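REVIEWER CHECKLIST
Item 1: Sequence provided? yes
Item 2: Single chain? yes
Item 3: Sequence as submitted:
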Amino acid sequence: MTDTFHDALVRPGTPSLLPERFFDRFVFNLHPVAESAPSVLVGLGVHPAKDVVDGFALLVTGTEQRNLRFSTELSATDGASAGPFSWEVVEPMQAWRIALGPNPAGLEFDLLWRARTPAWTGEIQVTNGDGTPTSFDHLFQSGRYTGTLTVDGQRRSADGWYGQRDRSRGVRTMTGGQGLHIWCQAQFADRSVGFLLVETRRQERLLLEGAVMYEDGRLDPITDVRHALRFDDGLDLKGGTVEVTAESGTVQVIDCDATAGGGYMAGAGYGGQHGRHLGRDHLEHDVYPLDGSVSPRTLDSPLTDRLTAFTCAGARGQGIFEFALTRSRSYTYLPTLS
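Item 4: Structure as written out by the authors:
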């Protein structure tokens, strides 16, 4: 739980002694403080042993989700760009610049993300159901943006918009046995409530990490999370409540409205597409209508990063509620909060 995470990505030419499944990845989200759209998610991962770097950019509007995926050979890059996307660690743990140039999705941006809270860092150690290990360093941190966002040629300011970043590095193969996955990043004016919770198909807790990250510099580790969530027949989250207990003894009851729609991470290549060698300068683009025809049940992966409205003790917030329910018939979601 320190700010000593090595923030820069592994660069081209890194010795090939790293495990084949080693990855080094970042994800940023971007959204207004109090609006239900747009929501932007952008990420990039480096896979040195496979000589692959791949990334994505998703734009969620009120009616559709636009998906852009790109991939190239790591050895053919400068270590700071891939396809139409570029990034720079301006100040480790404090500021990043990210930019997306012209592309078929009609989304462009030039943004500076600056931290507004300390970062939560931890190490994930899980033995999967098939015996393969998962071991990676993990960080998330809240910030705000300055810069511009352009959609179909219409440019607007993103100054003051919220943005949570997620950094992870190591070996990750979460296979089988999971029932519920939550990565919640609830942004309030004075704090960000961030946690990762994973339960098995028998409703046993497999993993819990996170903290309440305050703008005044405090970091209060989370010790317990209970939940009562509402999902539809397509396994899509509609809303619910999470109760978050921190090490200091504070308990925050957070109501969640997830009806904005979209955020389906299958559009970002989740579901087994990351790290595949697709050659140089590979680019893909598609669109999901938000009319009910697409859902976590129908896509390659049920993982969803939903722009969600939060309420806690009368305070209103906005952020990303990432969720996934297994599609196994052996699993039924059960709340842990009555």
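Item 5: Key structural point noted by reviewer: Residues 62 and 136 are 35 Å apart (CA to CA).
Item 6: Recommendation: ____
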